[in-house]
Design brief:
two-stranded antiparallel ribbon; 5 strands; mainly alpha; about 5% strand
Length: about 375
């Protein structure tokens, strides 16, 4: 949508005018400076005409929210967004103490039960969980669903989007049912948590934030005495520390929310990058844990076929430090990921031979390599190195 069309939308919606300045509204859609020809206000003010569907989904959503229909506008406080954060307790334990914690480590975790362990269900919750098994028909369905869930757990791909949205919720950033960042109950737009409202969290990258920073920076240079270097210094400080330590304000610069938008967009970027990295770490941990569980089950069943299937999965997986070791030796000519032997060279996942470089295509005829040494699960170790 062009800046002029966006301006028309803004001028026809009192709710938007009360929430944002025109420039802030344009910044939401990556538009630069305000169009030079504003839409004049007719005199006398005519009766508002409903916006026809042909003018775009933006108007439809705004009108829907204004009329109380659905409450799906991500730019307004919304009581329907998911605010429930579920910590990954297994990952917390692993990230702090590895897969083989010492006795002292276990004592430390026991001293911080609320952080490292899921809360024990209350007596009422335990009673209800057991009682439902005796409800005619329901108990069978419940047990069947649990069985199916466990059976599919090792087959279904890890839901990376769900992990990211959960970790964002843990940092106070909420999403709606279609994955857009949305303002939660009592929240505000011009905050680090709400400033990216409307963007799909799973599709955001550094460029998403940088484009907005660029547009806001240009406006600040046009409307204030700030130079490009001063703006860059502020952006770089926030990128390093997550905070702005200066004293400049919108009021001091003579702008409405423009400078605070710059600060909040970059504080939001800092938080997003941290949650994105944590989400990837959790994904890597879960994939490694799944393979380790498969190997343990194969060993318990004394099934060579199941063990080999788990080992093949290791090679097919993209590089994962929890599976392949701390150094990435790349993929071999067979397209399978190599492993870090822990002795200064990699191991080809097909032949078991050494890989002497980080391309995955080094020497592959090492006599004493082979999968035999990994059959017992040695290659899948989540111990921190």
């Amino acid at each position: 949508m062009s800046p002029q069309n966006l301006t028309n939308v803004y001028n026809q919606n009192p709710t938007l005018q009360g929430q944002y300045t025109l420039q802030q509204y344009l910044d939401l859609f990556g538009q630069g400076s305000t169009p030079t020809t504003p839409t004049p206000t007719p005199t006398p003010t005519p009766t508002p005409t409903p916006t026809p569907p042909s003018q775009g989904i933006i108007n439809q959503n705004i009108n829907q929210y204004q009329s109380g229909g659905g409450g799906n506008n991500p730019y307004m406080p919304n009581s329907n967004v998911n605010t429930n954060y579920k910590p990954d307790y297994d990952f917390r334990q692993f990230s702090e103490y590895g897969m083989n914690p010492s006795t002292m480590d276990v004592k430390q975790m026991d001293m911080n039960q609320n952080y490292f362990n899921a809360p024990t269900p209350s007596a009422t919750q335990q009673f209800l969980s057991k009682a439902i098994n005796f409800v005619p028909g329901i108990g069978t369905v419940k047990r069947g669903a649990e069985f199916l869930g466990n059976a599919l757990k090792g087959m279904m791909p890890i839901n990376e989007r769900a992990i990211l949205e959960n970790e964002l919720r843990g940092s106070g950033v909420f999403t709606d049912d279609i994955g857009r960042i949305a303002i939660g109950p009592g929240g505000k737009y011009n905050t680090p948590e709400g400033i990216m409202a409307g963007y799909n969290a799973n599709q955001m990258t550094d460029k998403t934030f940088d484009k907005r920073t660029g547009n806001i920076g240009k406006s600040l240079q046009e409307k204030t005495s700030l130079t490009e270097q001063q703006i860059n210094d502020i952006v770089n400080e926030i990128a390093t520390t997550g905070k702005y330590s200066g004293t400049l304000t919108d009021e001091e610069l003579g702008v409405k929310n423009l400078f605070s938008n710059l600060v909040n967009v970059n504080m939001s970027k800092f938080n997003f990058k941290n949650q994105k990295k944590k989400s990837q770490d959790i994904r890597n941990f879960r994939e490694a844990k799944r393979i380790q569980d498969e190997l343990a089950a194969a060993a318990a069943a004394k099934s060579k076929a199941k063990a080999l299937a788990a080992i093949k999965r290791q090679g097919r997986a993209d590089y994962n430090p929890n599976i392949h070791g701390p150094n990435n030796y790349g993929k071999g000519s067979d397209g399978r990921q190599s492993f870090d032997s822990g002795q200064g060279f990699g191991v080809n996942s097909t032949t078991g031979g050494p890989v002497s470089n980080r391309t995955g295509r080094g020497r592959t005829d090492y006599r004493y390599g082979g999968r035999a040494s990994y059959f017992n699960g040695g290659i899948v170790s989540l111990r921190r190195r």
